[in-house]
Design a protein that fits this description.
Helix content: over 70%
Number of strands: 0
Radius of gyration: 18 Å
Mean pLDDT: 76
Number of domains: 1
Strand content: under 5%
Order of helices and strands: HHHHHHHHHH
Oligomer: single chain
Length: 211
């Protein structure tokens, strides 16, 4: 298993990386402003699930390939950026219909929201680089099975991210409720959420390999 000293150091490093707003945090905030708390939390769960994909890649050895290949990382980054921009544009286009959805029961679109969060989490270069280049440094080959250590460390990372992103989403969702008292306010916040998501996508596309 992972040595205690390595584990503590990893938790500190992961916490610092996660609390600094990146694509996942800003995406959750944008969804909370556009769709509300419940859908934002669904997005967060989907995002956390998607983050497990690059973790599994590291466990089976693909992480090293991605970290060593600028082309592979760039392709993944651009796919994630394009998807974010698409979602942001959609949120901005439908901002006027947000008031009609307040108080509406949950519909099957929750599955779609989950899938969207999954794609964003799966293609987040911040997580990919962390898992491929940082996480392995906290494992100790002399203490046991390396793949198992990667899984344990990755699970801790995903758990911290889930809690952090959920807190951001709830906070943003609460602010949305205040705006919801006025249709004009809600339309404005919906547009702001969409614009924020587009901005995250654009920044991701223009960022370096360690975005």
């Amino acid at each position: 298993m992972v040595p205690t000293t390595h584990l503590i150091a990893f938790v500190v490093a992961a916490f610092i990386i996660i609390v600094i707003p990146g694509p996942s945090v800003l995406f959750a905030v944008g969804r909370a402003l556009s769709l509300g708390r419940r859908q934002a939390l669904t997005t967060v769960v989907g995002n956390a699930t998607g983050t497990a994909v690059p973790l599994i890649g590291v466990v089976i050895g693909l992480g090293a390939i991605v970290a060593a290949s600028a082309v592979a990382l760039t392709v993944i980054k651009l796919i994630g950026a394009a998807y974010l921009i698409y979602l942001g544009v959609q949120a901005f286009r439908h901002r006027k219909s947000l008031s009609d959805t307040l108080g509406a029961p949950v519909t099957p679109t929750g599955k779609k929201v989950f899938r969207q969060g999954f794609v964003v989490g799966m293609t987040n270069p911040k997580s990919i680089v962390f898992f491929a280049a940082v996480l392995p440094q906290f494992a100790d080959p002399s203490t046991g099975n390396l793949p198992l250590q990667f899984l344990v460390l990755g699970a801790i990372f995903c758990t911290i991210a889930l809690v952090s992103d959920s807190a951001w989403a709830l906070l943003a969702g609460t602010a949305r409720d205040w705006f919801a008292r006025s249709p004009k306010r809600l339309e404005a916040v919906g547009g702001a959420g969409g614009a924020m998501i587009v901005g995250v996508g654009a920044a991701l596309a223009l960022s370096g390999s360690k975005a």
